[in-house]
UniProtKB/TrEMBL annotation:
<feature type="signal peptide">
    <location>
        <begin position="1"/>
        <end position="16"/>
    </location>
</feature>
<protein>
    <submittedName>
        <fullName>Chromosome undetermined scaffold_1, whole genome shotgun sequence</fullName>
    </submittedName>
</protein>
<feature type="domain" description="Thioredoxin-like fold">
    <location>
        <begin position="37"/>
        <end position="199"/>
    </location>
</feature>
<dbReference type="Pfam" id="PF13462">
    <property type="entry name" value="Thioredoxin_4"/>
</dbReference>
<keyword id="KW-0732">Signal</keyword>
<dbReference type="InterPro" id="IPR012336">
    <property type="entry name" value="Thioredoxin-like_fold"/>
</dbReference>
<dbReference type="InterPro" id="IPR036249">
    <property type="entry name" value="Thioredoxin-like_sf"/>
</dbReference>
Length: 216
């Protein structure tokens, strides 16, 4: 594992100096519109630590702190998780339908992470992995957002706009010196240790950086 992160770190140093295309709009899927505190999360949907952090921030949002910060999710699929890259492509596709659709998809994949884990898919073909991603989206996301299923299936393939977007996302992460997941950036600066934060620590950080305005 340490060797993998060392290699990712080297890749980050190399790729961070390479050209990152300027997107037509800011990358990521966002909740909230605070201009004072922006927290960016780089997640791999097959990473258990990303899942834990995602769920903890869900608790923070559920407690009403979402008005105090802008929460932006980026995909950073790690190379040793086979399903992570097509999941990032699906996330990119659904983000064009609705930000909440992409957020729901991330939640569903995290909730079903074990079904697409390396140990579970060791004997699967690539197409079986893509089919499972599509099935989970159809069961849990499609009923609410009614996307084009054929187009969604195509979005998981190589050589598509969404494959390119997922590549740009990863490259953007390396440009920001991200070399693993989860990584959090607060107002442009990496928040060291945030991957281990519990809800109380996030709430304390948010309140210190952007206290809630007291109602008169």
């Amino acid at each position: 594992m340490n060797r993998v992160f060392l290699l990712l770190g080297i890749a980050t140093l190399v790729l961070s100096n390479q050209y990152v295309p300027i997107p037509n709009k800011p990358l990521g899927v966002s909740k909230g519109d605070s201009k004072k505190l922006i927290i960016e999360a780089f997640f791999d949907l097959q990473c258990p630590d990303s899942r834990n952090s995602f769920r903890i921030l869900e608790q923070v949002l559920a407690q009403g702190y979402g008005t105090q910060f802008k929460y932006t999710i980026h995909m950073f699929p790690l190379p040793y998780h086979r399903a992570a890259f097509p999941e990032a492509q699906a996330f990119a596709f659904l983000s064009e339908i609705d930000a909440e659709a992409a957020y729901l998809f991330a939640k569903i994949i995290f909730d079903n992470q074990e079904t697409l884990a390396e140990s579970a898919t060791l004997e699967w073909t690539w197409q079986q992995i893509l089919n499972k991603v599509a099935d989970l989206a159809k069961e849990h996301v499609y009923p609410k957002y009614q996307y084009d299923e054929v187009k969604f299936a195509k979005s998981l393939l190589p050589g598509t706009d969404w494959n390119l977007k997922a590549r740009y996302w990863w490259k953007y992460g390396t440009y920001r010196t991200v070399s693993g997941a989860p990584i959090f950036i607060a107002n442009g600066v990496i928040l060291n240790g945030a991957e281990n934060y519990e809800a109380e620590e996030w709430i304390d950080f948010i309140n210190r950086k952007n206290p809630k305005t007291q109602e008169l």
